[in-house]
């Protein structure tokens, strides 16, 4: 059974007119608010906000419910080793899915987003598309999430670009070091 999920509820594989229409509507509503709120400072900034008030929570929650739905389908084989994979935001979502679902035994990520979340606040290189640091957003740090993996999980950080400013290698190496499960990391000179 293969399940493909996207974070914003936008249909995949549509013609360009579909995406152009969405962009025009969202521009009239004041930007991309509603689709890409993880980059919207008014939705994520504020030390008083709890993790459940942040847009990332909705992404993680939708993925969790999607996996629960897939497990109810007759095609689901509970004896198989469940795996998740993704790149960039998909890598983040794969790690978060495994952190909240103990049936996932393999995580394969490339150029994984949401590492080194507090890097910019500490004067370090941080991703160009990273939400502003708050205590609440730290809940979604990949370094913290991989630390929850059971020893029966295999984590493969398959591509970590040493020149990647969207997914800085410092966060990916920190995630690798925080994981106590079986793990591998591939550092690449370029993104």
Overview of this structure, please?
Residues 26-38 have low confidence and may be disordered. The radius of gyration is 17 Å and the shape is globular. It has helices at 16-28, 41-44, 55-72, 89-100, 135-138, 142-146, 169-178, and strands spanning 82-87, 104-110, 154-161, 182-188. The longest helix is centred in the N-terminal third of the chain and has 18 residues, at 55-72. The chain starts with 15 loop residues before the first helix and ends with a strand. It has a four-stranded parallel beta sheet, with helices on one face. The chain has 191 residues and is an alpha/beta fold.
Count the E strands.
4
Give, in order, the helices and strands. Answer: HHHEHEHHEHE
Low-confidence stretches: 26-38
Question: Whole-number radius of gyration?
Answer: 17 Å
Beta-strand percentage range = 5-15%
Helix content: 25-40%
Strand order of the largest sheet: 1-2-3-4
- The gross shape turns out to be globular
Number of helices: 7
Rounded average pLDDT: 81
N- and C-termini, Cα separation: 31 Å
Largest sheet: 4 strands, parallel
Helical/strand content category: alpha/beta
Could you provide a short overview of the structure?
By secondary structure, this protein is α/β, with parallel strands linked by helices. It has helices spanning 16-28, 41-44, 55-72, 89-100, 135-138, 142-146, 169-178; strands spanning 82-87, 104-110, 154-161, 182-188. The protein has a 4-stranded parallel sheet, covered by helices on one side.
